[in-house]
């Protein structure tokens, strides 16, 4: 087993320590870091973003060829790791022989830095993993409301600051992580989009924690991992094929979920009914086509699976506060002046 020791909260130092122990080629640009690894230990990459001095984002998108343990130990016992597993799994413990806590695919996890013990994170040999961690130094967070909330919720009531929370399955977060990875803008716009997305991921983690506490008090049940996977797949299918004339029965058969479970899942995952989700996908697809294609409005209406132009205009205006034609004219003016 390979052991990687991390002894700092500083993102650059973290990457330098990982590189010194795992190898690979490190590139740094502005506040972003990326370590490409392809050797006998691992294949893949570790990326990171410094959002503010107190908040950093790290993503392990990697396949380990041997069992690997990451240990976090530094003097600051007021730091918290907000984790999310997009693929594979992660085992966490305080101390090498402490209680093992498993973070499975689509689950959130919150781990504080122990005042007395190292935090261990175990990666299994032969498993491709995609783990995202937001590292927060609570006492130096710039936003006072966020600082107070983190202190009151995760630090003040914990013995020795040892907090382990494994949350329910959540697909909203994986969508935001994919959005973060697909940001293509450069310069200031890129920085603003990255920062806002990381804060949104953090907000969703905090919301999940709050909802889990509420559900525990009300004895509510959540969706299973297999159900979440089915919901993710069927949601992606709808996004890829908005033109299909969907029915709840068709989606139920294709996903293997009951109509009731489908509606419940879409409400949890997208905060929409199935019908609302399909409508929203069609409108967003249409907006993208108006900006990026030469199709006229009637052709776009047909492309997204609708037959009524007046109905399309109604739902488009409800979302974007202007008619499709007006929006298209504005895009054309921008193209001419660019």
TrEMBL record:
Q: What GO annotations for molecular function exist for this entry?
A: DNA-binding transcription factor activity; sequence-specific DNA binding
User: Mind telling me which PROSITE patterns this protein's record contains?
Assistant: HTH_ARAC_FAMILY_2 (PS01124)
Its lineage reads: Bacteria, Pseudomonadati, Bacteroidota, Flavobacteriia, Flavobacteriales
Keyword terms of this UniProt record: Coiled coil, Transcription, Transcription regulation
HTH araC/xylS-type domain ranges (all copies): 232-330
The entry's protein name is AraC family transcriptional regulator
Q: Which residues form a coiled coil?
A: 199-226
- Sorted alphabetically, which SUPFAM superfamilies does this protein's record hold? Homeodomain-like
């Amino acid at each position: 087993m390979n052991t990687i020791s991390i002894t700092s909260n500083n993102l650059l130092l973290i990457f330098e320590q990982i590189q010194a122990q795992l190898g690979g080629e490190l590139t740094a640009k502005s506040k972003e870091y990326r370590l490409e690894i392809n050797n006998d230990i691992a294949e893949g990459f570790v990326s990171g973003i410094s959002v503010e001095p107190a908040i950093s984002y790290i993503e392990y998108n990697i396949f380990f060829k041997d069992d690997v343990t990451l240990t976090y130990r530094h003097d600051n016992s007021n730091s918290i790791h907000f984790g999310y597993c997009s693929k594979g799994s992660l085992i966490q413990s305080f101390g090498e022989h402490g209680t093992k806590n498993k973070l499975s695919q689509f689950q959130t996890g919150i781990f504080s830095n122990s005042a007395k013990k190292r935090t261990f994170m175990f990666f299994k040999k032969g498993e491709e993993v995609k783990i995202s961690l937001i590292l927060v130094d609570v006492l130096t967070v710039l936003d006072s409301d966020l600082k107070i909330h983190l202190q009151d919720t995760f630090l003040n009531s914990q013995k020795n600051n040892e907090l382990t929370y494994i949350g329910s399955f959540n697909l909203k977060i994986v969508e935001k992580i994919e959005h973060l990875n697909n940001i293509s803008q450069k310069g200031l716009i890129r920085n603003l989009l990255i920062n806002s997305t990381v804060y949104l991921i953090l907000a969703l983690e905090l919301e999940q924690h709050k909802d889990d506490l509420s559900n525990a008090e009300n004895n509510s049940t959540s969706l299973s991992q297999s159900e979440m996977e089915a919901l993710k797949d069927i949601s992606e299918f709808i996004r890829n094929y908005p033109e299909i004339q969907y029915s709840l029965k068709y989606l139920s058969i294709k996903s293997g979920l009951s109509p009731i479970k489908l509606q419940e899942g879409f409400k949890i995952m997208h905060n929409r009914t199935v019908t609302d989700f399909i409508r929203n996908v069609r409108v967003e697809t249409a907006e993208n086509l108006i900006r990026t294609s030469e199709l006229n409005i009637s052709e776009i209406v047909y492309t997204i699976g609708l037959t009524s132009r007046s109905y399309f205009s109604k739902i488009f205006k409800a979302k974007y506060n202007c008619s499709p034609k007006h929006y298209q004219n504005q895009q054309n003016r921008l193209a001419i002046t660019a």
